[in-house]
Structure formats: C-alpha cells, structure tokens
Amino acid sequence: MNLLESVSVALEGIMTSKLRSFLTTLGIVIGIAAVIAVVAIGQGGRAVLMSEMEKMGTNIFAIFVDWRSNKLVTGREFDLSDVAAIKDKVPEVTHLSPVNQIMSDIRGPKADTNGWDTVFAIRIKDVNSAIRLQKSSPTDFSQHYVDPETDDDITITGVFGDWQLTTGGDGKNLHMSVPIKTGTMTRNGKPYDMAGDVATIEVNCDFVPPPCWLSDLRGPFFAKCHPPLDAADVSRNLARHLRILGH
C-alpha cells in the first residue's frame, strides 16, 4: 500500500465514523488547550507576584518555618539541603543568610507582652496633615525675659506657621519644626526681624499618640509632648534657638 492509498483509507475511515473522529479531534484540542492554559496561568501568576514584590521596594524576604505554631515541632527546621533547594527552584535568589531568633515572656504590672514590644505606630506625614487641617498648633507668641547667659533684656513677639513633626538625627527623638511667619525680637532695645526663621524643638518620642488621637490633636497631641509644646513654653526657649540661627 502506497502513500496515496493510505491517505484514501484514512479519509474513508474518518468519513465512515464521523462522530468518533470528531470526539477524538475535540479531545486532542482540549488537551492542548488545557496545557497551554496551565502554563499561561502559572507564568501569569509568577509575573503578578514578581510585580507585587517589586512594588514593595525591597529585594530581601524572610522565610519562617512553622511561624507562630502552637504544635510541637522536631529539632530539624532548616538545613543546607533546604538552602540548596531554594537556590535551585528560585533562580532570582542571589544570597541566603540564616537568622536565629529567641523569644521570652515579659510580665509587668499592667500587661503581658509575650516577648514583643507593644508600640503605637503612626505616619509623621499623617500627624502633620492633621495639624494643618485642624489648625491645632499655637498661632502666636509673646514673651519678655532676661537672657540668663548674657543678661540681655529680650522681648519677642510674632506669629507661627503650621508646626511640623520631623525625625531626630539619632532616631530616638523627634523634632518639632516651628516656622515663624512674622516676628520681632528686641534685644536691649535693638530690634531683629525673625520672619522666615525656623526654631527646632527636640521632644521625646514617647509623646507620639496612637492613631485614634489624630482626630483630637488640639488637646492630647501637644499636651503629651515632653516638654509640653504650647506657645508660652516655646517662646521661653526661642532665645536659645535664635542664638543658633545667628540673632
């Protein structure tokens, strides 16, 4: 039987059993489509995951074994074979480093921390936005005193701009930036223009309120500062800051 006869017999068989031929063809098409769909979904999911990881702005991730699990676990957690498997399965990983973490329970008179520090976290930009919207920072100042270091007779008056919370240089403290819209300092009868100057007050970070306080910054926010931040307290300390500014 030559090639033409084989093709003729095949076509005759297809025409004789049309339904069976159609179902066979349909099965092949569905199988190929399923394989393509699975591969496409896998590649699409990987692309979405990588895109979300890139949006985080970091290329370092931590992997925890039985994280926060209450069940008993064996002594084996991670070994070199797991490291090799990660490097083999995830080619994007360039470096791996182990971390050993130990936790303990610490009990105090008011709370059980379960090995973790309990803190309130807020964004500085949210605080500053609330200060601007609510106009909750002191607006003006006026103070007369004698400089204890120079014995100069000083009078300061003026109007503040919106106060702004900023981070301290060492990370342990926060700074309150106090812009001066208009102001005059008279030292021994000689006036100095303070417009455009900015005084910086260092405050302890333990005054920062929990997020629920942002709706009432006028009272608790400035009252909880150490030292308390009101117009009188700030104006009494302006001489020290203005001396740094060159006045």
Describe the structure.
- With 247 residues, the chain is an alpha+beta fold.
- The protein has helices spanning 3-16, 18-55, 80-89, 124-134, 217-223, 231-244, and strands at residues 140-146, 153-160, 164-167, 173-187, 190-193, 198-204.
- The chain has a domain at 124-223.
- The longest helix has 38 residues, at 18-55.
- The protein is built from 6 helices and 6 strands, in the order H-H-H-H-E-E-E-E-E-E-H-H.
What is this structure's SSE topology?
Layout: H1 3-16, H2 18-55, H3 80-89, H4 124-134, E1 140-146, E2 153-160, E3 164-167, E4 173-187, E5 190-193, E6 198-204, H5 217-223, H6 231-244
Antiparallel strand pairs: 1-2, 2-4, 3-4, 4-5, 4-6
- Low-pLDDT parts are 205-220
Find the structural class using helix and strand composition: alpha+beta
The outline comes out as elongated
What would you report as the Rg, rounded to the nearest angstrom? 36 Å
The proportion of residues in beta strands is 15-25%
The DSSP helix count reads: 6
